[in-house]
Design goal:
Blueprint: E1 2-4, E2 9-18, E3 21-29, E4 37-38, H1 40-47, E5 57-62, E6 66-72, E7 84-85, H2 87-93, E8 96-100, E9 105-109
Parallel strand pairs: 3-7, 4-6
Antiparallel strand pairs: 1-2, 2-3, 2-5, 5-6, 8-9
């Protein structure tokens, strides 16, 4: 991943699969957030050509590794259009999150089963 911007925010690439649809995105890492959210643009791409059941959670596969519940980001929030990955995923994967501010790089790592 990369560290970008005035506030040195960390973004990690991720492949999301829902049913037969697969898309690539970059998640903003939210180490203070307990949930993983999808912004409206990503949400709409995943549900394109599917009947919208009106719900605000989906069970998706992230990076081909695990099924994870994600929630549509509340539209009245500051980051409504941004994909946020929270500590729920980190805990589930027993992951390590590493940031190198010198090289402006970050990584999410976990042991293979």
């Amino acid at each position: 991943g990369v560290v970008r911007g005035r506030y040195s925010r960390c973004f990690i690439p991720c492949v999301i699969k829902f049913r037969s649809k697969t898309i690539k995105t970059a998640f903003l890492v939210d180490t203070g957030g307990t949930c993983t959210y999808l912004g409206k643009p990503t949400w709409d791409k995943l549900l394109e050509d599917l009947e919208d059941n009106g719900g605000n959670t989906l069970r998706v596969t992230l990076n081909g590794e695990t099924r994870q519940e994600v929630t549509l980001s509340p539209q009245d929030r500051h980051f409504a259009d941004i994909d946020l990955i929270g500590t729920d995923f980190f805990n589930h994967m027993e992951a390590r999150f590493r940031v190198d501010y010198k090289t402006k790089a970050c990584a999410l790592e976990w042991d293979e089963p």
